[in-house]
Known about the structure:
Layout: E1 2-4, H1 11-20, E2 24-26, H2 28-45, H3 71-82, E3 86-89, H4 92-106, H5 115-126, E4 129-131, E5 134-136, H6 145-155, E6 160-163, E7 169-170, H7 171-178, H8 189-194, H9 198-228, H10 238-242, H11 247-260, H12 264-277, H13 282-285, H14 287-309, E8 317-318, E9 324-325, H15 333-361, H16 384-400, H17 422-454, H18 460-470, H19 483-494, H20 497-506
Parallel strand pairs: 1-2
Antiparallel strand pairs: 3-5, 4-6, 6-7, 8-9
Helix pairs in contact: 1-4, 1-9, 3-6, 4-5, 4-9, 9-11, 9-14, 9-15, 9-17, 11-14, 14-15, 15-16, 15-17, 16-17, 17-19, 18-20
Enzyme class: lyase
Pathway: Amino-acid degradation; L-histidine degradation into L-glutamate; N-formimidoyl-L-glutamate from L-histidine: step 1/3
GO molecular function: histidine ammonia-lyase activity
Amino acid sequence: MITIGIGPLSIEDVVAIARHGEQVEVSSEALDAIAETRERVEELANSDTPVYGISTGFGALANRHIPDEMRAQLQLSLVRSHAAGSGPEVEEEVIRALMALRLSTLCTGRTGVRPIVAKTYADVLNAGITPVVREYGSLGCSGDLAPLAHCALALLGEGEVRVNGGEIEPAGDALKRAGIEPLALREKEGLALINGTDGMLGQLCLAITDLRELARLADVATAMTVEGLTGTLTVFADDLQQLRPHPGQADAAANVRTVAADSPILEAAHENFKAKQVQDAYSVRCAPQVAGGFRDTLDHAALVAGRELAAAVDNPVVALDGRVSSNGNFHGAPVAYVLDFLAVVTADLASMSERRTDRFLDPARNRGLSAFLADDPGVDSGHMIAQYTQAGIVAELKRLAVPASADSIPSSAMQEDHVSLGWSGARKLRKSVDGLRRVLAIELLTAARAVDMREQSPAAGTGAAISAIRTVAEGPGTDRFLSPEIESTVGILEDGSLLAAVEKAVGKLR
């Protein structure tokens, strides 16, 4: 059970709720804060002075004063009209992350909703009710409007939902079955439910979690490639990394040393390497520099995510002194920038992995192995086309690295004339994360084949990785249907079992 209070959730909390179905509860402190600021909203609602979001229209229609008897309809119309998404359905874990973050903002007490709104949001999350949200609809400014509106609509008993991954059904039916009373919105509440960066931030939290694990897997892949190519570990020495003191670089190099430590293959090849090879190629030798920059970028993204997790993003907002004020905190630029930054470094890490894989397949560069690691080159093609698959993914990742946040498109009759497109950045980053995992899976699968073809005992860490791979993919031999082995290797990266096997053998990686 995760308690959501007036303080921020952590990245780990968000992932636990979104991905692992962790239950939530709203703290009594948060309920008190929500009730206190609601009193201020109701005071302003009874005033003759127009207040944006309480007694006026929205966006370009903010200059229209709305009479008392129309304000419930105003909030309902807002949610209904903004639930205008289109396209493929967004993944359940993304929507649960978005909902957890919107609930967290409600619990700050800065949005002016009633306590029942937060309680209902928590009840829907705990019942496993996930609104159906469509791919397109957010410009990343004024919040992730359409995605959040689809979620708000479900709280009202309208729209479509899935319950625990089941079939799509009417939200009203799901709420009734769960014993949840649909909300009837009052002043400010519809706006408070849709005005936030929760969709892009939720996807950032999920991506950071996945990319941290993929960073370690990239180091495992590098270690296996060094071993499979009979390279050298000397360039990964800690004192050499300290000459350029980027923390991520030192961590990446340490992981490579740990995974390939005491390799009989490398020890046997050491003198020959010194005499004939001298240096490994950049894709091997410079792996810590690239993987380290990737890690340091992840740390920066986590810093931004932490700040955003501590934010109360709404417009207008109930300030600490009680005033209700319009603001620009809903603009997604800070989150959008790091989403794009992560797409750039993800593409580059994958690009280096693909280059290492390619070295295994060329007899002019693979130091004594067969062409394409084929059993009988010419008759067999080995991993030739697996590298094509990598190359196609890397090309796609480079396209996905084009920043969304450098673009903007005006909306709402030019009232909302600059937007972040952070939701778009988040959506393409999810594709990038999946692409990197697939590229690394192919490098690991190829490196495992190469090490096996050396017919010598591997290091403890690389050996553990190879053993994990051999549970889902056969060793060297004549050509066979390769796609299922690639997909199965992707699976043991995604479920964590390959990394767990390595860490069981050599200890926790950095």
